[in-house]
Amino acid sequence: MSANKNNLFSNLKYDFPAGLVVYLVALPLCLGVALASTGRPDLLFSGIISGVIGGIVIGSLSGSSLGVSGPAAGLVVIVLTAIETLGSFEAFLLAVVLAGAIQLLAGFLNAGIIGYYFPSSVIKGMLAAIGITLILKEIPHAFGYDADFMGDEAFSQKDGQNTFTEVFNAIRYSSTGAIIISAISLGLLLLFDRPFMKRIQLFKFLPGALFVVLIGIVLNAVFINFFPSIALSGEHLVQLPVASSASEFISFFKSPDFTAINKVEVYTVAFTLAIVASLETLLSVEATDKLDPYKRNTPTNRELKAQGIGNMVSGLIGGLPITQVIVRSSANIESGARTKMGTITHGSILLLSAIFIPKFLNYIPLASLAAVLLLVGYKLSKVQLYSGMYKLGKEQFIPFIVTIIAILSTDLLKGIAIGMVVAIYFILRKNYKHSYHYKKEEYKDGDIITIVLSEEVTFLNKGSIGHTLDHLPENSKVIIDGSKSMSIDYDVLEIIQEFRKHGAPAKNIIVETRGIESVASVGGH
Predict the structure, then answer these.
(1) Is the Cβ–Cβ distance between 78 and 276 less than 8 Å?
(2) Are 326 and 369 found together in one domain?
C-alpha cells in the first residue's frame, strides 16, 4: 500500500462519493433498527444519533481505514428486551453509557486480541451469508412489501414470519410502482458499475446510488401525478422525524436516567451489550480487513476503545448502542473509499441532512435503496468466493458452508458460534495428526521407531502422542526426538516421562530421548 492511501484529505475524491453511498445505505438502516429496537416511532431519531456518532466520533478515533459503525440489527432483540426490563428508555441509555465504559476498559486490557482468533473460513462464510441475507431481505422491499424493518438480519421475525415467508409474501402483495422503481434502479446501478461509465468525469465524483435515489423520487412523483394507483407513500418511503422548530429538534435528544445507577439490571444489560457489541465489532473488523483492497490491519484494541467512547457519547445524548457493521463497511469498500474520511463523510452528511432537509429525505422510495443493497449483497456473495473456498479443500470449505447455513437459519452471532465449533474441530483434527513424524526401521530384536516432534508441541497434541506411545510394539526401541522443537508443553513432557517410567518397562521398550532436556526432571514436579 502506498503512503498516499493514509493521507485523509488527498483521497477525498474517492472518499466523498463512497461516504455518500454509505449515507444512502445507512439512513434507512438507522431508522429501521431504531424502530425495531424501541418499538416506538417517537424514538426513531435515536438511530440517526448513533449513525452520526458511529460515523464522526468512532470514525475519527478508530484505526480502521474502511470500517463503518452504527446501530446494528444484531442488537435489536437485546435492546428491545432491555428497555422492557429496565422500564424506560432513559434507564436503558445509562446501560449504554456503562457498556461503552466496559468496552473502553477492555481496550486498555488488550481484549481486542480475541479478534485475531476467528478462522478465515468462518469470516468468509459470514461475508457470504450476509450477502445472501441482504438479497433475501431486500427482495420484499424491492417488491414494495415493507412489513419488516429495513436492515433486519435474523431468520425468524417477531411477527412470526421468517426470511423465506417474507419473500413469498412480497410476491403475493407486491406493488407495481415499487417493482418499476427497483428494476430501473438496479439496471442503472449495473450500468454505473461498467468500466466505461467510471471513465466519465461526473460519475467519478457523484456515485450511481445518488442518481438512482433521485430517479426514484422523480418516478414516484410521476406516479403520484399521473398514475396514483401505483404511487408509493407512507411505509414505502423513508420516514425520518421532521422537527417543526429548533426546540422540537433538540427534544429528539434524550439524557440517561442516572437515578437508575443502583439497579442491578442496568449492569446486567451493560455487560451483555458490551460483550455482544464487542464481538460483532471484532467480527466486522476482521471481515472488513479481508475486503480491504490495500490489505491494512485494524488495531483491535484501539477499535474497542473507539467503540467504547462512541457508545458512551451515544448513551449520553439519546442514541442506540453502536457496533462496526459489515453491510455499511462493504458498501464503503465497494464504492471505492480509501481512508476513514469515507466513514466520517457519511456521518457528517447524515447529521446535516437530518437538520436541514428531513422533508426531502422522506420522498426517497425504499425500493430505490433496496436496489443499492441488493447489489451490495451480490458483491459479498459472488460465485468466485464459493469456488475459491472449494479449491482450498474440505478443512476450509466445510466450516465456510456450515457458517453460511447457520447464519441464514438463525442469526449472525449464533451462526458464527456454530461455524467456529466446526472450524475448531478441523483445526484440532489437523493438529492431532501433525504433531510429530513417525518413522519405523528394522531392529535385531524388534523395531527402531523414531518419533520426531514438531516445532510447536502443545497440550492439544498430548492425546495423539499418548495414543502412539501406548500402541508401540513390544521389544522395540523408540527414539523421541525433540531437537527441532521450539516449545514442548509440560503436559506432553509428563506423558513422555510417565511412558518412560511405567509404560515402556512393562512392554520391554527401550526409550531414548534427544533434545528434550527437561524430560528427566518432569517427575520431580
Answers:
(1) yes
(2) yes
Ranges of the chain with pLDDT below 70: 1-8, 201, 204, 430-446, 517-525
CA 365 to chain centre: 27
The domain spanning residue 484 has which CATH number? 3.30.750.24
Q: What 3-state DSSP class applies to 418? A: helix
Q: What's the rounded Cα separation, in Å, for the pair 490 and 457?
A: 10
Q: State pTM to two decimals.
A: 0.83
Q: Which three cell numbers stand for residue 183?
A: 428494476
Q: How many domains does the chain have?
A: 2
148: closest CA among 234, 237, 231, 36? 36
User: 250 with 317, same domain?
Assistant: yes
Backbone angles phi, psi at 14, to 5 degrees: -95, -40
Tens digits of residue pLDDT in 269-321: 999 999 999 999 999 999 999 999 998 999 999 999 999 999 999 999 999 99
The torsion of the CA quartet 106, 110, 112, 116, rounded to 10 degrees, works out to: -160
Separation of alpha carbons 343 and 63, rounded Å: 12
Measure the CA angle with vertex 503, ends 501 and 505; round to 5°.
Answer: 70
Determine the 3-state secondary structure of 324 from DSSP: strand
Strand 477-481 relative to strand 510-514: parallel, antiparallel, unpaired?
parallel
Long-range contacts of 116-119 (CB under 8 A, 24+ apart): 116/300, 118/282, 118/283, 118/286, 118/416, 118/420, 119/399, 119/420, 119/423, 119/424, 119/427
Q: Is residue 477 part of a domain?
A: yes
Rounded alpha-carbon distances, angstroms, from residue 108 to 89, 111, 295, 301, 312: 29, 8, 25, 7, 16
DSSP state letters, 155-202:
SB-TTS-BHHHHHHHHHHT--HHHHHHHHHHHHHHHHHTSHHHHTSHH
Rounded alpha-carbon distances, angstroms, from residue 6 to 3, 42, 44, 302, 340:
6, 41, 35, 17, 9
Domain assignment of residue 419, yes or no: no
Residue 485 to residue 243: CA distance in whole angstroms: 69
CB distance 273 to 99 below 8 Å: yes
pLDDT at 435: 56
